[in-house]
Amino acid sequence: MNRKLATVLAAGVGLSLVLTGCSAGGAASGGDGSSKKGGLISIIVNDPSNPYWKTEGDVASAEAKSLGYKSNVSASKGDTNTESNLVDTAITNKSVAIILDPANASGSIGAVKKADAAGIPVFLVNAEINQAGLAKAQLVSNNAQGAAIGAQQWVKSVGDSGNYAELFGAPSDNNAQTRSNGYKTVLSQYPDLKEVAKQVANWDRTQGHDKTQSILQADPDIKGIISGNDEMALGAIAALKESGKLDQVKVGGFDGSPDAVDAVKAGELQYTVLQPVATFAKKAVQEADEYLRTGKTGAAQEKQAFDCVLITKENADKVTSPFTLSE
Q: Which family is this protein grouped under (predicted)?
């Protein structure tokens, strides 16, 4: 197996090193290494009403078409039954590959197995599943690194003492726990910072708003809210505005969504951590194309992590398109 070192540009800045080389597996045309080009690539995202997942689907679809494939984008809304039905549809439509943002780390394994059994290679983006060797690739943000730089910036905004709360994403998504663990690793270094509330808000803006209202009622003296994603953070900001406490409570986000970047520019959100979703969604399609043509993805390993970028007032103007930072 040959390997070489390739550099991947994460969201237009910051170099993320990814080892590339040969990957095991035969070509999709039957395992004989013969070239296979064209056909339908089915793209299954979570919920395109969230700009993060919309960008994921849009970028993957555009890249598939640019490489000579047909594409369609559908949404599971985080439901494994819907996801399973969408995979069935992809199989029925004779898709040559599936780009999948899995709905559940464990619950999506069956859908990936089903596609694999049908001879359709699956390339996972954004979230992982709890079984290696089924998907041809799993491309995700470096959530631990992103959480660390976010928490460090959050402490700069909030200070090293006082009460705070955390808004936690969907428990079925490994990213939620990884980010929470990353926050804890940093914040535990400040013993005078006390977490008085941790609420699950499922990546959702409305839930972020409602959970923040509940937090404020129980703990009106909190100094900060650290959030697992931007949608929950923006919901928190709305609740803080309603209560007249936005100046007293500092909020940090995670994703780099357009609304969050605008909130950073306005001084309402202290920062966001930009995930390079545009980079790895495009890369996943490129690896699918490589696999279909050669039987290899071009990546040395199944799981590939792309570094995140901290967005503050100082560099928010450099976010030139969704989830992309200019040099």
A: Belongs to the bacterial solute-binding protein 2 family.
203 and 229, same domain (yes or no): yes
> Do 27 and 134 belong to one domain?
yes
In a domain, 239, yes or no: yes
The token pair that represents 29 in the structure block:
């045309």
Q: Considering its fold, how many domains does the chain have in total?
A: 2
> What is the domain range of residue 232?
143-274
Query: Has residue 213 been placed in a domain?
Result: yes
Beta strands 15-21 and 3-9 are: antiparallel
Q: Indicate if 32 and 98 belong to the same structural domain.
A: yes
CA–CA gap between residue 204 and residue 213 (Å, rounded): 14
Global pTM reads 0.83
Query: Is residue 110 located within the same domain as residue 238?
Result: no
Non-local (6+) Cβ contacts of 46 within 8 A are 53, 75, 76, 77, 78, 101, 103, 126
In terms of Cβ atoms closer than 10 Å to its own Cβ (0-12, 13-18, 19+), residue 239 is buried
In the block, tokens 């296979």 appear at 36
In-domain check, residue 318: no
Task: Render each residue's pLDDT in the chain as its tens digit; 327 residues.
Answer: 433 333 333 333 333 333 333 333 333 343 333 345 689 999 999 999 999 999 999 999 999 999 999 999 999 999 999 999 999 999 999 999 999 999 999 999 999 999 999 999 999 999 999 999 999 999 999 999 999 999 999 999 999 999 999 999 999 899 999 999 999 999 999 999 999 999 999 999 999 999 999 999 999 999 999 999 999 999 999 999 999 999 999 999 999 999 999 999 999 999 999 999 999 999 999 999 999 999 999 999 999 999 999 999 999 999 988 898 886
